[in-house]
Amino acid sequence: MDKQLLIFDFDGTLIDSVPDLADATNAMLTTLGKETYSLNTIRNWVGNGSRMLVERALVGKIEVLEGELTIEEADHAEQVFFEAYNNISGSKTVAYPDVDSGLKKLKAAGYTLALVTNKPIRFVPKILQTFGWQDLFSAVLGGDSLSLKKPDPAPLLHVCEALDATPDQAVMIGDSRNDILAGQNAKMDTLGLSYGYNYGQDIRELNPTRAFDDFATLVEYLLKN
Ligand SMILES: O=C(O)COP(=O)(O)O
Ligand SMILES: [Mg+2]
Q1: Is 89 exposed, middle or buried, given 0-12, 13-18 or 19+ CB atoms closer than 10 A?
Q2: Which residues bind Mg(2+) (predicted)?
Q3: N or C, where is the chain less crowded by C-beta within 10 Å?
């Protein structure tokens, strides 16, 4: 592909982190004396960062209405979640097939790689280390690195500027509407992956520039075009 900068999403794109996120969510709910949920339910709550995941879990649904939770209640639950997720140590988090070799091939082909996730930045370095990816990405931003997160284009534009690329020279690659919308808002091409977490919706409905059903096909496309 005639681009120089590949901006990757993390959860649902490179790694399947939902088993650990679900365990941490349920540990938090148990600590707070609330009912727990299945992994399939929790999967549909991931995508807008941990604060949103925690709030959705507290009300037991994707839409959190104004006034349903107090800030104190949500702040406390978020702290309990952070502690639980930190303790879980990423033991159930795996890389999707062909991601490790694919990232290395793309880097070797001369692409600059960046990571923009909505996950709080404090959890990112350890996971990168687990997979030996700590030197792959030229820039890494978490959901709380800036005041705005995906679907806002701010983190994508920030990375472009930091790495001396125009949005036209960059492409956003992700599994969720937040990635595709952030890319479209930044006036970038977008590549969607269908296997991650997108609130149960087909990523193709967001009209990415192209969509792929597995990482190996995405890599092949990027190396050929
Ligand atoms: O933590 C989340 O909610 C999603 O993270 P992601 O942006 O890497 O998919
Ligand atoms: Mg994602």
Answers
A1: exposed
A2: 9, 11, 175
A3: C
Share of the chain above pLDDT 70, in %: 100
Q: Are 202 and 192 in contact (CB under 8 A)?
A: no
Domain carrying residue 173: 5-16+93-224
175 annotated as belonging to a binding site for a ligand: yes
- Tell me: do 108 and 185 sit in the same domain: yes
pLDDT digits (tens, 9 = 90+) for 30-76: 999 999 999 999 999 999 999 999 999 999 999 999 999 999 999 99
> Ligand 1: does its nearest atom lie under 6 Å from the Cβ of 11?
yes
pTM of the model: 0.96
Contact at 8 Å (CB) between 182 and 151? yes
Q: Are residues 114 and 78 in the same domain?
A: no
What contacts 123, CB < 8 A, 6 or more positions away? Answer: 85, 86, 142
Q: 9 an active-site residue?
A: yes
Instruction: Give the tens place of pLDDT for each residue, 92-101.
Output: 999 999 999 9
Closest CA to 51 of 20, 19, 73, 18: 73
* Residue 20 Cβ < 6 Å to ligand 1: no
